[in-house]
Amino acid sequence: MILGLFFGLFVVLRRGPSRAIQDGAALQEMLPIEIDYVGSIPRMKAG
Amino acid sequence: MTPLASAASAYPLEGYAPNSIAGRRYAHVVERILERSPQAGHVFVTSPGEGEGKTLTATNLALAFHARNISVLLAELSLVRPKLGQIFGSSPLRPGIEDVLLGQSDLFSAICVRGDNNLNLAMVRRPQESDESLAPGAHLNRLISEARQLYSWTIFDGPAIQSSTYVRTLIESMTATLMVARAGQTDRVSFSNALSKIGDLHPLVLLNDEHM
Asked: CB B181 to CB A37 under 8 A?
């Protein structure tokens, strides 16, 4: 059970709040047709 | 112009790396902007809230213009929470861009140049308590006019939409606006609210930090 709780917490922390935009497809769904979506920048590691 | 020490940045500056995935994406954004205005102009970078990658996006976009041998200035308009210094180090100049906006300096005197790639920068030297100097007026008009005289393109690292009452009037002075969001962070509601404020001005939209 404890392992399950840790796993759930890990998933929530990794995904962020459920109301957050998660990817480009989700973002494009929110855009009216006259707004230009120019793409996404992949997550980059600093350094 | 005063050279700026080019210490290795801890931030991923991919706009000058056209062979990287991110570098190609930034090059694509440049092409989309040039489709709107092939010759010259101003790009305003903003986001719904703080911490969504405005400064890094503006920096990489300026580097992507620079990589195409296009004359470009990266100018900081986030007067209350300036971040360019975190990437490039503090400006070595006495006048900052805030002095230009207060009518106490011309733009040329506030420009420094990065040592390793000659990117020209106009940075905030002293964070301001408010961004009232971004209100429409003679000093802001002069800054934009001087930037147009000195460079083909100026990339403005602007304040967040939720943080400044002047974002809309600033956008109205620009050739193009790039609104950035961050995957996993930008809230859908705040994005929709931001879009309701500036959507009729047809911003380009970019998503940062997408998991590939």
From this structure: no
pLDDT per residue rounded down to tens, chain A (47 residues): 666 766 666 655 555 456 999 999 999 999 999 999 999 999 865 43
| Conformation bin of residue B53: beta by default, left when phi > 0, alpha when psi is -120 to 50 | left
Q: What is B77-146 written as a DSSP string? A: ---SS--HHHHH-----SS-HHHHHTTSS-SGGGEEEETTT--EEE--SS--S--GGGSSSHHHHHHHHH
Asked if the Cβ–Cβ distance from A30 to B12 is below 8 Å, we say no
Q: Taking CB atoms and an 8 Å limit, are B208 and A21 in contact across chains?
A: no
Q: Is the dihedral of CA B9, B49, B123, B141 positive or negative?
A: positive
| Residues of chain B contacting residue A44, judged by C-beta atoms under 8 Å apart | 12, 14, 22, 209
Q: A6 CA to chain B: closest CA distance, Å?
A: 20
